[in-house]
Amino acid sequence: MSLQEDIRPASLRSDPDDVTGSDGGHSNKKPTTSLTRIEAVGDAQPDNEFSVMGYTPQLKRLTIQTMLLSLFAVPFGISSGFYTAMIGGGPASLVWGFILVGCLQECVAVSLGEICSRFPTSGGPYYWSYALAPPSIRTMLSYVTGWLYMLAIWMLDLGTHYGTAILIVGAINIYYPDWTAPVWVTLVICYGLYVLSTLMTWKGHRWVPMLDTVNAVFTGICLVAIVASILGIAAEGRRSASFVFTHYDWSYSGWGRGFTFCIGLLPGCFVMCGIGFISSMSEEVAVPTKQIPRAMVIGIPVAILSGLVFILGCLFTLPDIDKLLNAPGGSPMPVILATATGSKAGGVALLSLIISNAAIAWNALIVSTIIQMLIALIGLGSSSAFNAFLNVGIIGVDLAYGMPIAISLCSGRKLVKDAPWYTGFLGKVCNIISVLWISFSLVLFSMPIAIPVDAVSANYAPLVLVFFMGFSALWYIIQARKVYKGPPPVDFLVSLDIPELPERDDQ
Question: Which keywords fit this entry according to its UniProt record (predicted)?
Fold first, then answer.
């Protein structure tokens, strides 16, 4: 991956004053903007901020909010981590852990929103790290952050594909409970999903924005339909409120009372770890300096509320926990739905809603798809491969978020004080909490979910993370430091009321 890829909209790359001539050679003209010449145009009207350069925002105000539902994919995210939550203490851990993660991720959202308000670019963390870091280390930090972010996206996408494959196997097990799917079957289904997403890239890319909007609406419908169905039918009765909110059993993990609760944080982290991804829409909305931070901060409460609705619906109709932990393929959700509806067909129907809600990246690239498919081979030798994929993704995205937050905090938050969405002392508190939370999550998601462990049940997340980061560091020393000089100039910032940005090292 080249971190110097031009991230500007197509309309900007055709600027007649670009440094590249029409014949492909280099022109003597200098670019109209650089990271040292970002001019303010005052308080432009929302719909006119981008019209200064002839660029029309593509997303309506409502769209950026509804995309959050599609991004979080709450039913799928919670379903994928339900097994881990049961190992990690059960119902009480899932409910209160989800709320706790939401509060901590809200601090991350406030911190990122403030930075994004200062530097609203789709480059996200790797651009922010460069803009905020001291000149002596900003290029290296930007490069490392870019690799972390890319790895996180790969692994979260892989986790989504692999998790969807597990749910599909679970749907089959509803009708054939005695059938145990070999791991290669799950892998083949995962590969089939990759083929579908790749075909969407080639043939259906023009429909992707529409699919995002449809999926957002569909997510809300799925949530209501599933919860209403299982609570309304409750074929085997309903659990008490005391069970749902206070039942806590740490005996399954082997870790002890305290750390077991932390194991149960995975579902919340998986659902809400993508809050920073919304920054990629900075060049598609009318007022990115305000709309993107607002979307980030509002998004977490939306995720908490919708997540609790789904969680409580499942817990009030929860079958025996031992039965869930012995579910075929390690996927409890098919058992929950089939038991609650008292019908195999009903269970499969509701499970199909969750599967169709999976936030699979329909704009996957060929190279990244091949890499993800190769990493998925870990599943052939490890029963905890799915958790490893999610853990690496969560660790990677948290570290990518944490890098610019920590840099800003260590520099006294000087560069965000002029941000249109500056939060003052609250922002500093959120920065500190975010850095502490991300540091803890790095340790948490490097640990196995249960002990003792063997070669099959071990958590391979640290191994995968160290391998890729070691490779990126080696490549930086050998080659990348010679060619990577920081993010490209982002011309669309000319139309925004943004102070001067740091100069690229090659200018």
Answer: Membrane, Transmembrane, Transmembrane helix, Transport
